[in-house]
Each structure stands twice: as structure tokens, then as C-alpha cells.
Amino acid sequence: MTNWLATISFSAILSALATAIPVAAAVYAFARGLFDERRGKSKRSLVEHLGRAAAAGGLPSALILIVGAFRPAILASVPGINLQIALGGLSLLYVSIEILFPSEQPPPPGPPSN
């Protein structure tokens, strides 16, 4: 009798994590939002439903990127992770620019000073 666990490769697990699980998580988050809305808990727009779905679908990719920081060889074995790497870079770029070069915004209106 063959050990079925021994036949599963690590790259196959990562491939499933990078493809099937994000789709399932996104569908679940979208459906859950619709279900909650129908039960009267909240009223959300399509943009909010899609945002929840995208956020849920990004969790597995985020975990892969975090693990990949400690074991870079993992990133090479995951197909289709390029977009997530680019989004991570764009996020870091945005945060860096916002912190280093804050935009000048007027102070919030308050009571007039005497």
C-alpha cells in the first residue's frame, strides 16, 4: 500500500494554496457578505462586497509572501505569484512615500481663536 501523503509534493501544495484556496476564500467572503446583508445586519454596496472578496482571496498569497521572506526558494516554486509580489512592492512604496513626503493638508476646522 502506497503512502498517499508521500506522493504529494510540496510545490503541489503551494500551487493549490496560491490558486484554489484564494478563489474559495473570495467566494466565501462575498457570499457571507450577501448573507449578512439579507439577514438585515448591514447594507453594503457591490464595491464593498468585492473589496471583502479581494481581501479574503489575498490572505493565502500574503502568507506565502511572508514565508518566502524566510525561504526565498518557495517563491520560485509557486506559479502566478508575480502579481502579489508586485502589489506588495507597490504597498511598500506607497507607505514609504506617505511617511517620507507627507502631503500638506490644512488643519481641521475648529473653533475660532480669540
List keywords for this structure.
single chain, mainly alpha
What does this structure look like?
There is one protein chain. Helix 1 (about 10-40) runs antiparallel to helix 2. The protein is flat. The protein has about 110 residues and is mainly α. The chain has helices spanning about 10-40, 45-70, 75, 80-100. About 70% of the residues lie in helices and about 0% in strands. The chain has one domain (about 10-100).
Q: Give the tally of β-strands.
A: 0
C-alpha termini separation:
88 Å
Number of helices: 4
- Shape label: flat
Based on helices, strands and strand pairing, what is the structural class? mainly alpha
What average pLDDT do the residues reach?
A: 83
Give the H and E element order.
HHHH
Helicity level, as a percent range?
55-70%
Strand content: under 5%
Largest sheet: none
In the residues, how many domains can be counted? 1
Q: Which segments are poorly predicted (pLDDT under 50) over 5 or more consecutive residues?
A: none
Q: Using only CA atoms, what is the Rg? A: 21 Å
Write the layout of secondary structure elements.
Layout: H1 10-38, H2 46-70, H3 73-77, H4 82-100
Helix pairs in contact: 1-2
